[in-house]
Write the structure tokens for this entry.
Amino acid sequence: MKTTLPKADEIERKWWLIDAEDLILGRMSVKIANLLRGRHKAIYTPHIDTGDYVIVINASKVRVSGNKEEQKSYMFYTGYFGNEKRIGISTFRKKRPEFIVKHSVKGMLPKNRLARQMIQKLKIYADGEHPHEAQTPEKIEL
């Protein structure tokens, strides 16, 4: 039996819609990362981008488990001495709620050029509105 590899023009990409309201961040991110990689398809190949597009709405209403709301922080470093900044998840929830979901999903993808291609297929919106109605996304329950 021969092994077939999918060609770029043979891959059919679907659009998925995920409502992040009251979903736990980590569990949701695993599902999103698998959809972006294409692990739910029979033609999945690790070194080829066979994944679908994912739209996440209500990113500002995602939940985190445990004491992460008070304790979790993201670290940024400019390269200068003493310029290491730690920003809490509650601050990001107010200013840039899309960052929380994108950072979590990006950490679950492989660290290579292919992952940078996959993360571009992730569209995140803080509220319930999105401009991708023309693609007719299919709502998925997690």
The two ends are 36 Å apart (CA to CA). The chain is about 30% helix and 20% strand.
